Amino acid sequence: MDRVALFFWLGMLFVAVNIMWALAQAVVASAFGARPLTVQVGYGPKLLAWRMAGIGWSLHPIVLGSSASFTPEAEDGAQATSLKSRLNKLPPPLHALSLAIPWYVQIGVAMACLGPAEGFHQFTEGFPAVFNLAALPGRVERFVGLLRDGELLRAWGIMSARMAALNLLPIPTLAGGYLMLLPWRDKSPTWVRPVAIALLAVVLPWAGYVAYLFVRAIL
Q: Which of 44, 48, 191, 211 is buried most, with the most CB atoms less than 10 Å from its CB?
């Protein structure tokens, strides 16, 4: 593959992983009676917007994540603080399942693409991979090598497994963080915001470094 094709397929893989996550979250939450109001795939300016199954969907250019909104917007002068998330109206066990099942779906995709043993291995290996900065360049080079060889299914499986591991970290904006904060779902404790800011200050440089490694490996 040439460089343009490599960037294209890398972007398509990120889109596929995040759309799969968004679809799983929307389907599971809706099945439990907490249909999301909007689902956003990616970040940045809105590229596309449509409605499907009563949900407002939007696609954005920086496809490094997805999010669903379950809280209605304030109308007619109502205070936003009085509006309750649809997820918070669920019993805590169903709330936890609505967060956990999409995570299992990602692992299932990895196992379908790579085989059960390899998919689970790639998932468990994803936890140390996040923190092992010295090994990241080699991992990125090998992943880009899969794209060059046209092994898109294997690349999708590995990305799904690693994103599932990353999403389970106890960071407030990720599924692992939401699961950790379930006991305080009706009123977040005061320490959540400073912890989220501190973790974001760590995650953003890490994400920038990984993006740099991908660009360097492709160019």
A: 211
Does residue 43 contact residue 182 with C-beta atoms inside 8 Å?
Answer: no
> Which residues, including other chains, have CB under 8 Å from residue 79's CB and lie 6 or more apart?
none
Q: Report the alpha-carbon distance of residue 29 to residue 11 in Å, rounded.
A: 27
Provide the terminal-to-terminal Cα distance of the chain, rounded to the nearest Å: 12
Pair 17, 159: CB distance under 8 Å: yes
Token reading at 181: 């904060």
Amino acid at 64: L
Asked if residue 17 has pLDDT above 50, the reply is yes
**C-alpha torsion 48→49→52→56, nearest 10:** 140
* pLDDT per position as a tens digit, 157-181: 999 998 888 888 877 777 888 888 8
Bridge partners for 49 per DSSP: 58
113 pLDDT band (50/70/90 cuts)?
Answer: very high
**DSSP letters of 118-175?**
HHHHHHHHHHHHHH-GGGHHHHHHHHHHHHHTT-HHHHHHHHHHHHHHHHTSS-TTSH
Integer Cα distance of 167 and 142 in angstroms: 22
Beta strands in the chain (DSSP E): 38-43, 48-52, 55-59, 62-69
